[in-house]
Amino acid sequence: MTFRSAAAALTLLLAPASQARGGETAAVLSSGGAAYMEAFAAFQAVRGSTVPYYDISKKKMELPAGTRTVVAFGGRAANQAYAPGLNVVYCMAPGFFAKTIPPGTKTVKISVAPEFGLLFAKLLAVQPGLKRLRIFWMVPDFESYIGAVKAEGARRGVEVTEVRAESPEAMPGLLRQGLNKMDAFWIPPDPLIISPEMLLILREFSWSNGVPFYGSTKGMTREGAVASVGVSFGEMGKAAAAAARLLEEGRDVPPMIFPGKVEVTLNSAAARKCGLSFPRALIEEAGHLFP
User: Fold this and answer.
1) pLDDT, tens digit, for every residue of 156-200?
2) d(Cα 272, Cα 227) in Å, to the nearest integer?
3) Backbone phi and psi for residue 122, each to the nearest 5 degrees, phi listed first
4) Sheet (strand 132-137) strand order
5) 79/221: higher pLDDT
6) Paired residues of 185 in beta bridges
7) Has residue 245 got a pLDDT over 50?
8) 20 to 30 Å CA-CA from 49: which of 105, 171, 176, 207?
9) Which region, left, alpha or beta, applies to residue 23 given φ > 0 means left and ψ of -120 to 50 means alpha?
10) Residue 5 has what pLDDT?
11) Is the distance from CB of 232 to CB of 263 less than 8 angstroms?
């Protein structure tokens, strides 16, 4: 099953469950922060029943007897030592991939990056002449995405070049090296790169050289990206609920799921700096338009 078909299959299951099985599923949150609670609320809505949750920033996790499936929200929650035989669905963990999986355990990652067909469709709507896209990243596990990104780019006539930075300090030099070799660059949801200081560097490079910078979160758009194509916290929670339900039913689920709906945010000032204008249809679709 491909990532795209898996996302489509999950979309069919996103209606609230009429008879969710209680007592078999528990949620673990890295903290009670607003983002985690937004995702968890969407998860509960799809489940259609109350699921116990544990905020591990406040107390030790003690899963109730009979728990079969754990849904983890955040990297710290995903990285807990769960007992063998549990199903584990984890989301909102951009730098984490489960590597050591005990016997009898099934794990599913809800991607924080958008499905790449949707990503390229939106980028090409903003910049129809895009032919050369550079991707800068640091998190080692992002390498698992690269083949899919390149393949999707090739299908759409876009040459994708991936550049892994050894450290944030290397980024300015890497940007300069690629100046005449790219029509735009994209920064995935990489926690090792994304920081206030780095976003300022990316914006200044983009605006000074007229090279569009594309991001993956609303915050990146606010700080100077022309546009971002990302997955909202609510959509991650919905996808996690659908994946958990499939696991509980004994269905086959791929190790990584791309939520089927993306959120587009746009920055008018950044677009002007790069000689771009947004089509009306994209503006109407956008979740937010920064002036």
Assistant:
1) 999 999 999 999 999 999 999 999 999 999 999 888 888 999 999
2) 12
3) -75, -40
4) 159-164, 132-137, 184-186, 213-215, 227-230, 263-267, 288-290
5) 221
6) 134, 213
7) yes
8) 105
9) left
10) 43
11) yes
Domain boundaries, given as residue ranges, for the chain? 3-112+232-257, 116-230+263-290
Please give the model's pTM, rounded to 2 decimal places. Answer: 0.79
Dump pLDDT digits (tens) for 84-99.
888 899 988 877 777 6
Rounded to whole angstroms, how far apart are CA atoms 11 and 235? Answer: 10
| Encoded tokens for 3 | 């990532």
Annotate 69-96 with b (16+ C-beta within 10 A) or e (fewer): bbbbbbebbbebebeeebbbbbbbbbbb
Same fold yes or no, 3-112+232-257 and 116-230+263-290:
yes
Confidence (pLDDT) at 278? 96
